[in-house]
């Protein structure tokens, strides 16, 4: 159903106070769509609409609301009314919400929960942001190796309603150490009397709770997994991360890298809904830093004031020379930043990539030099043409090599290669461009004139 | 197993000619890892190693090889030996490979296949690149609405080995029109004697074969789907796209957008393995185009040669003013390009975003103006300080507004917003910066001096 139609339906029900037809109409609507429509209402109305559904469905819809709205809604209703909902939520979503609560709210909520739920929330919410632990779910299906296949299927059937997925089960020993994994497909195809131990895959692909989320997403993508098991330092199973969470992580990582390449600080949540003060803060830092970087280009120009005054025609070519250097640098920088992020290129490939880049940059530089030499001749004569073409060849090569190398250097020193943003590379290339251009000009023009 | 250990093992087996121990050692190794190791060998050796495995496993490993290597390997062995392997491949991978074949190879292969396989390959390979059809698999599980739940489970058990997934089944009527979807979890939980028709979800989320892959990936992410059914214009089920393919599509789209923001043309496959001539071609076009864009900045400078000669101190501030304009523009441009790509911001949000950006850009401009006014005073006195600060405020605002608007404008006219790359915005901001700076300077300095 269209979002606007859905909002209209919900609004009409709120106004008439008649919710009787709503349930039928919305039965086949996906929780994500209902949440998108609900997001347009006030917390009081959200709650009024939500409570028209059975509790399990309430939780399904609720978790699709933006996290900030979940917090607001939790704030706006009494603990007694909210507790059943939070108990119904899946373990990972619940822990995320809990982490956004104030200390008071946390203290108020915990006593209302059963011991097992309390332990689960406290344990899941204890992992640092950015780790596998922070996105994992504790609602995984666990099997003993001594079960037969038909017993295992019975266990899964019984547990299915409460588990994140039953398509993958994890086999643990008596100490809860992860020893195997098994898909429901494999179970269904295996003889009913076979033992789980004989059918399972040993030593499954796994991560530890402190692994980075990027690593988890990369493994799920590489091996086409539905879910990946998470173990603690002792090798005990503590959670799973599912493919849909991995997809969200990969998208968030890409967004963060995009922003970084344009010198924007880490932004969580929607750009559309972000506060002006937040966006200002995330953007101003690097803008100011780069101003001071660009002082060097200015100082370079000041150094050559005399040459420039004598050959003011040189100025005409200044923007296109330094821009070309920066553009070529941004290209090779971006290629490397992304290739390092996807794992296409590794740190050890620097030598190989540098060798290739020297050739590519030479070709690019020669092409660009040819393109501007004609322009130089037309505008300033043969001498200017030579200076401009030689400068172009050099600055495109230097810009490209800076762009290529910076991400590797940052990575080598444990920094995020995405910090090697276009603007940073451009600023460095600018300084180099100014100095090279006017050095060549003053040397060559003195020689020939 | 570590990649290098794996390569070593394979090499040792090739040298000794003794493959007897290999099978046991590699039984638990993921096909993706085996393919990564195989990729380091020549086609002849790849084939020799592959054929040590049973046919089904051969196909599993083969599809993880880079597509170019699959083509090479297919070239290097006889049709009779290759045909069994291609018959074993999953339908989507097989169609991708077929699309890379020469016409001769295609003509040679087709007669060796059964009618159904031939039709399947021809049909799947007929969809244009970038559509759902081009990545979908025809190995989906299909059910009739009249089956009982226990009959349906029996059908799935029987078909499991040949299907991409059995965790989602699609229900079609006698004309093969898609009428419902059903997860294996739902089947397992339903009463054995219930009818599929009564348990299934009606009107499932679906796409048509000509939908864009981006749209497919976005739907799978939004609704946390394991797979999405693909229908033709008549509503008949023709394929499914699974979550892992959607994740690959999302990553490839992000890479393409990254490259675009640095004016690099669409690159398929690995940057590491890309030929120098290919990288050159993908980079040179925009570099040359932007040179001609930057001529306008040069012309702007030439226009003000007189003011510059009289106040050569102005030059010192030129790089940082135009760089700041470009940097602010790259920030707002990148924020919008990514937000439009993820769906966070829609075309209709332009007004709202523009209003916010005016405020943010004013704040940024004022901060930057304050930062450079002191520098202007120290370097050139009060008059220069006024000119520089006023210019900074204006150029940061104009740069930001250009950066924000360009992606919307491109999107409005059906072009990819990612074309509004940093370098393009920078070039436009440069021209504006030069003209604004020297216009203010010549007006103000004439006024006060």
UniProtKB/TrEMBL annotation, chains A, B:
Subunit structure: Homodimer.
All copies of domain CBS, residue ranges: 136-199, 200-256
Membrane topology of the entry: Multi-pass membrane protein
Lineage, opening ranks: Bacteria, Pseudomonadati, Pseudomonadota, Gammaproteobacteria, Chromatiales
Keyword Secreted part of the UniProt annotation: no
Protein name: Magnesium transporter MgtE
Membrane-spanning ranges: 284-304, 316-337, 358-378, 384-410, 422-445
Keyword Plastid: no
Pfam family for this entry, one: MgtE
Locations listed in the record: Cell membrane; Membrane
Keywords: CBS domain, Cell membrane, Magnesium, Membrane, Metal-binding, Transmembrane, Transmembrane helix, Transport
Gene3D superfamilies per record: CBS-domain, MgtE N-terminal domain-like, SLC41 divalent cation transporters, integral membrane domain
Role noted for this protein: Acts as a magnesium transporter.
């Amino acid at each position: 159903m269209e979002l606007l139609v859905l909002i209209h339906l919900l609004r009409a029900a709120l106004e008439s106070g008649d919710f009787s037809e709503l349930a039928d109409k919305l039965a086949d609507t996906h929780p994500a769509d209902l949440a998108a429509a609900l997001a347009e209402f006030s917390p009081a109305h959200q709650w009024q609409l939500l409570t028209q559904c059975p509790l399990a469905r309430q939780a399904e819809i609720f978790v699709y609301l933006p996290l900030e709205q979940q917090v607001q809604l939790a704030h706006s209703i009494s603990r007694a009314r909210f507790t059943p909902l939070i108990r119904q939520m899946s373990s990972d979503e619940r822990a995320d919400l809990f982490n956004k609560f104030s200390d008071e709210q946390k203290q108020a909520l915990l006593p209302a929960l059963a011991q097992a739920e309390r332990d689960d929330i406290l344990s899941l919410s204890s992992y640092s942001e950015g780790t596998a632990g922070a996105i994992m779910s504790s609602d995984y299906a666990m099997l003993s190796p001594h079960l037969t296949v038909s017993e295992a299927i019975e266990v899964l059937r019984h547990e299915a309603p409460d588990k994140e997925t039953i398509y993958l089960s994890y086999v643990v020993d008596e100490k809860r150490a992860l020893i195997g994994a098994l898909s429901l497909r494999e179970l269904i195809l295996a003889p009913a009397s076979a033992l789980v131990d004989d059918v399972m895959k040993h030593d499954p692909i796994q991560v530890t709770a402190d692994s980075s989320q990027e690593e988890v997403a990369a493994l799920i993508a590489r091996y086409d997994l539905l879910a990946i098991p998470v173990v603690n330092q002792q090798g005990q199973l503590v959670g799973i991360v599912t493919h849909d969470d991995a997809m969200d992580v990969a998208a968030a990582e890409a967004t963060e890298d995009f922003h970084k390449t344009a010198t924007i600080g880490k932004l969580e949540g929607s750009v559309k809904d972000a506060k002006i003060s937040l966006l200002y803060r995330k953007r101003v830092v690097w803008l100011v830093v780069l101003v001071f970087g660009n002082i060097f280009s200015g100082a370079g120009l000041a150094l050559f004031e005399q040459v420039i005054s004598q050959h003011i025609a040189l100025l005409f070519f200044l923007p296109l020379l330094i821009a070309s250097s920066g553009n070529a640098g941004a290209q090779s920088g971006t290629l490397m930043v992304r290739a390092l992020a996807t794992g296409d290129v590794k740190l050890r490939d620097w030598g190989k990539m540098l060798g290739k880049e020297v050739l590519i940059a030479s070709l690019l530089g020669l092409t660009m030099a040819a393109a501007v030499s004609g322009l130089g001749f037309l505008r300033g004569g043969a001498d200017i043409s030579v200076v401009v073409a030689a400068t172009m060849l050099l600055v495109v090569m230097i810009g490209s090599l800076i762009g290529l190398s910076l991400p590797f250097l940052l990575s080598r020193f444990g920094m995020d290669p995405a910090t090697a943003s276009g603007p940073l590379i451009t600023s460095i290339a600018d300084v180099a461009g100014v100095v090279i251009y006017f050095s060549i000009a003053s040397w060559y023009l003195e020689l020939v004139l």
